[in-house]
Design goal:
Length: about 160
């Protein structure tokens, strides 16, 4: 799908695959829109006709739409294109905790404490909105590469 347009987004490159779909880095057709870049999750073609997976995907969109927190990826857009559901979320230019663990095996205690506090704040915000993530794991936590080292909770696919 790289190079294709979905909604008002052009898919630039694949970022990863999950149980329900593929996530792409994309840019907005209108370069004056802010933000111009997004991570676009597209429901996998093999799941497009599966009612229960489609409902779960729609629930993930609804959950993200309710959450507005600095440590949770923001929902930017959503829709359906050529029978495929998608949503656009804030793109985090960074790495997952899984990648950090694979690279370093062990992280300095002050970094771990800072990251844990950010994750706790994200989970508290979700819980305050009646949402339980249910899939907290290193690959669903992203840390930005910039100096802020902001941690973002992602993948609300099985949240309840």
């Amino acid at each position: 799908m790289t190079g294709e347009q979905i909604g008002s987004w052009i898919l630039d490159r694949e970022l990863g695959k999950g149980g329900m779909g593929i996530v792409y880095l994309a840019h907005h057709v209108d370069s004056s829109k802010q933000p111009n870049q997004a991570a676009i999750k597209v429901l996998a073609l093999e799941h497009a006709m599966d009612e229960s997976i489609h409902e779960r995907f729609q629930r993930e969109i609804a959950v993200l739409g309710r959450l507005k927190h600095a440590n949770i990826v923001r929902l930017l857009d959503y829709g359906e294109e050529k029978g495929r559901a998608f949503y656009a979320m804030e793109y985090v230019d960074g790495v997952s905790f899984q990648t950090l663990l694979n690279q370093h095996q062990r992280l300095p205690w002050d970094e771990v404490l800072d990251m844990a506090m950010q994750v706790c704040q994200a989970l508290k915000h979700a819980h305050n909105h009646g949402i339980v993530h249910r899939d907290l794991k290193p690959s669903n936590l992203l840390r930005s590469n910039d100096d802020s080292r902001v941690v973002k909770l992602t993948d609300f696919g099985v949240a309840w």
